[in-house]
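FAQ

Q: What does a record look like?
A: Structure on top, sequence underneath. For example:
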């Protein structure tokens, strides 16, 4: 009997939505407009975070550089031989990472040997001294094609030939990346016998012990800058913290917008309030109890919030998958611009959809329950008049 009663109240809520299409559509579209940016932003944030996690997992076990005024500084290549002798170390690969302008385009220059960029063939993985791999988006902006000659303004005496392109679907970082040999990068940035960092690969279970031994090299009392050792776990923690701060900033701004949207939705939810009061008066006159009326309104709000959250999730998927996150990617990916020229990573999980539903439900409850309760406790002749 109780189940039948709740089922009838649910069906009456559906009927109420259909009887008042104008009010229902206004609330539905208002909710969708409020929830859509929230769902899309969370999907981009989760996508970028997942891609960063995959990149870190595929990277080295330890990243070694010099401590320079408390920040990362270049490390001498002479340290490689000593590090390779530490038990547990498999190999040490030097890498140079720098930023420079190519015309008006800011690019990340990576100088590395012995490790192929992900997704590239072996022939293109180890560029010769005069070969250069361009991110496809960057090459298109610079008007470069395979076989073209190129040189850096930092070192114009060293000519390069465009050998291949890094596809933008490899990662969001490959769009504006330039890969050259380590030797060429050392010439371009004019730091011979130095590397931005040393990538240390260790046997399973030995990374922490190797990190401790590396930390003892170059103690402050040796009058040389100590090594700065970062484990894979530490790097992942830094990345997650950075995304947490960025997502937290967006959430703070969104909560502010959410708070401002409440009064607007309160007004919109009040459309047709006179007719709603009359309906409630008729219900009371025909024997409906106040709790039954309130339960029916809860069902109605749940349906509206569910439809709006599903619509916002669907539109967000279309926005990010087909529209490539135009207008929202730049909130989480610096330098992407209003129209990204690379595939924007996105990841849809149940959590954003659940949050969207709960937010929508709270908004609709705030907009309708107080007025419904007041009308339900008012004598029927007053509300029907």
């Amino acid at each position: 009997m109780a189940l039948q009663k709740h089922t009838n109240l649910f069906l009456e809520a559906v009927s109420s939505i259909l009887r008042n299409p104008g009010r229902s559509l206004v609330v539905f579209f208002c909710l969708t407009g409020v929830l859509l940016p929230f769902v899309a932003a969370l999907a981009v944030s989760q996508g970028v975070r997942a891609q960063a996690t995959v990149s870190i997992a595929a990277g080295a076990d330890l990243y070694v550089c010099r401590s320079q005024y408390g920040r990362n500084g270049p490390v001498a290549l002479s340290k490689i031989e000593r590090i390779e002798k530490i038990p547990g170390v498999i190999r040490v690969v030097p890498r140079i990472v720098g930023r420079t302008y190519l015309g008006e385009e800011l690019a990340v220059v990576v100088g590395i040997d012995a490790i192929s960029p992900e997704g590239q063939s072996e022939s293109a993985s180890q560029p010769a001294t005069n070969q250069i791999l361009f991110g496809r988006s960057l090459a298109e902006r610079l008007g470069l094609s395979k076989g073209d000659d190129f040189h850096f303004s930092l070192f114009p005496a060293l000519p390069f030939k465009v050998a291949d392109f890094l596809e933008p679907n490899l990662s969001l970082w490959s769009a504006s990346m330039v890969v050259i040999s380590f030797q060429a990068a050392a010439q371009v940035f004019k730091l011979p016998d130095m590397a931005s960092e040393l990538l240390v690969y260790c046997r399973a279970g030995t990374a922490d012990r190797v990190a401790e031994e590396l930390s003892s090299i170059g103690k402050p009392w040796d009058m040389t800058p100590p090594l700065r050792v970062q484990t894979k776990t530490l790097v992942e923690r830094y990345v997650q913290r950075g995304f947490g701060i960025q997502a937290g900033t967006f959430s703070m701004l969104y909560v502010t917008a959410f708070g401002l949207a409440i009064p607007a939705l309160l007004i919109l939810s009040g459309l047709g309030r006179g007719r709603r009061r009359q309906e409630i008066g008729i219900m009371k006159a025909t024997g409906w109890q106040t709790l039954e009326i309130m339960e029916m309104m809860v069902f109605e709000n749940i349906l509206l919030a569910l439809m709006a959250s599903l619509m916002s999730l669907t539109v967000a998927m279309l926005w990010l998958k087909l529209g490539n996150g135009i207008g929202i990617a730049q909130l989480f990916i610096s330098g992407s611009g209003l129209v990204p020229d690379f595939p924007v990573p996105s990841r849809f999980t149940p959590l954003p959809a659940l949050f969207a539903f709960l937010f929508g439900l709270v908004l609709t409850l705030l907009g309708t329950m107080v007025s419904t309760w007041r009308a339900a406790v008012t004598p029927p002749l007053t509300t029907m008049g």
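Q: Is there anything notable about this one?
A: The chain has twelve helices and twelve strands.
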